[in-house]
Amino acid sequence: MGRRRRQRRRSVAFQPFGFSFHIATSKSPTETKVAIQSRTKRWFDPKNGARGWIAGPLICLWLSAFDNHGPMLFGWVSKSEKGCTIRGRAGADLNGVVMAALILLPTIWIMFKIASNSDGFWPLLIVASLSFPLIFWMAHKDRRQGEPLVRFLQDVTAEKSSSVLSTVAAVRISPTLKLSVGGEEVAGPVTPGGLHQALLDAGEGDFIILHSAPERYIQTMAKDGRFFIEKRDGGHMQHFQALRVGVGDKSSERLFSFDEMLSVLVAYASDQAKPSFISWQRLDMPSS
What we know:
Strand content: 25-35%
Number of strands: 12
Shape: globular
Helix content: 25-40%
Largest sheet: 7 strands, antiparallel
Order of helices and strands: EHEEEEHHHEEHEEEEHE
């Protein structure tokens, strides 16, 4: 009998204030900030995408004009020998978590003083005290929603020769395809740059659909900074989901990175063979 190998899962530190990131670029601090400002959306642009402000070396970005609890990023631009670096933190709701942390002790102290003079107030104090750990836990659980903002900075600061887009820019896409983002069809022909930008702007739960007919399409949904993939080639029996080849972890076999998602979309759009890292499984079939 073969011995069963136990897979050890790496423990993840508790990160209610988002995850840290470090980006190095050959661009100067001034060039970096100009590049960021040139690519951000207006604050109240209804479409998702990075927007925000820069004050000196401090960068603040968020993804949505309407979701006040959505992904947020704070970064600090520093000069380096080879250009500059951006260090910071990105998470689901950084401003809300910081505010909760600032009012935590004063709130509990005030409610304790009130409860001391009123026996009926103790249950409310207990409930309020438990609500703060819940806020911090949710912020930790959803911290990867800030990944698109980090990806935006990486894309803006990348050298043209090393950019993901440079590898697919010359691909010819079928003129019969249409691109829909968040339920809204994008005007004009589909381009590799358009696919790249749609993925770059994708927030939590956003759908991106590349279609030639109502029942012929490939679609993806953003989830914690990564992507689910499905396609349909006709009727309901031709509806498939993408699985990662050679991965036994059910939690990650259906999720793909930004680079992988872009390569899948480009392959589909240009009638190329699917990338070797995915297989298609019909949705009415159980996982093997």
